[in-house]
Amino acid sequence: MSLSGVCVTAVESRPGGPSQALKALGEGVLGGASQGPVHRPLGARVKAFVALTKPRIIELLLITTVPVMFLAQQGVPDLKLVLLTCLGGYLSAGGANALNMYIDRDIDALMDRTSQRPLVTGMVSPRECMAFGISLAVVSTLLFGLTVNWLSAWLSLGALLFYVVVYTMILKRRTSQNIVWGGIAGCMPVLIGWSSVTNSLSWAPVILFLVMFFWTPPHYWPLSMKVKEDYARVGVPMLPVIASNKVVAKQIVIYSWVMVVVSLLLTPLGYTGWFYTAVALAAGGWWLWEAHALQNRAKSEATGTKLKEMRLFHWSITYVSLLFVAVAVDPFLR
Q1: Residues 282, 288, 289: CA angle, nearest 5 degrees
Q2: How many angstroms separate the Cα of 111 from the Cα of each of 24, 99, 115, 138, 328?
Q3: Helix, strand, or coil here: 17?
Q4: Is 14 helix (H, G, I), strand (E, B) or coil?
Q5: Is residue 193 within 8 Å of residue 66, measured between CB atoms?
Q6: Are 211 and 175 in contact (CB under 8 A)?
Q7: Residues 76-97: pLDDT tens digits?
Q8: Tens-place pLDDT, residues 188-222
Q9: Which domains does the chain have, with CATH numbers?
């Protein structure tokens, strides 16, 4: 583990990134932070480097990796292979997240939700962060290639480069399509889970890749609706910043329907049976209920109805967890 226009921000933004004023302000804040606090205890430093990897996000990526290994194996995969794949995946995603923080350190200093990240507080210097991210990228690629297989290694490296270069450096500050196409990086663990077992790809991981692709925007847009003032302040054109809540909610409903329909393709193609189908229908039905409810609240927002956008955000995490647990369990019930 993701629609275009011009942001209305507190400072004048130029195409391709934040304004010079924003950059200067961010660099000014970071200039002071980069000196670091007077005292940086070892324990706090270790926690800061762990925080650079964004562990909570990686948990979600692993949830979409391991169950696909069960599906590919049609049973229990080799435990050593699972551990190596998870370790490689963690290191790769952690490296991508660290490099993301290095690139975004100017705007992280100005956003409330990112103001305590390690580069902003000075617990980790920009140079340390960049070296850490690159090291994790190299180690994870070699770990995958030498202990799993090279197909998984290249897929992992491709995901890292896509997230860092295509999403963070190119899309994020230029277009509200950022999370749509940038979300491809978060879909890659599905392919990696399958390839780690089979050293090949098939239609099953492609379908699950598409499920995650269509899941990412309606997962992230509700959160963006909640914190859109943060994004507007730094000139990042997330869809809720440049469009009304009605428009965003409509897009969420469209993506949600496509996601649910795609999730049901595994069964007619023979990859899953009744258990997965039942879970996909039940969880998908509840998702659609929540998506339409959000759309109705957005239509009535002018009358004082609370948007409650985080309900769908939290359910989206539960949904993907249930769906992929069903992916792992289904082979044992066929």
Answers
A1: 90
A2: 15, 18, 6, 30, 38
A3: strand
A4: strand
A5: yes
A6: no
A7: 999 999 999 999 999 999 999 9
A8: 999 999 999 999 999 999 999 999 999 999 999 99
A9: 20-333 (1.10.600)
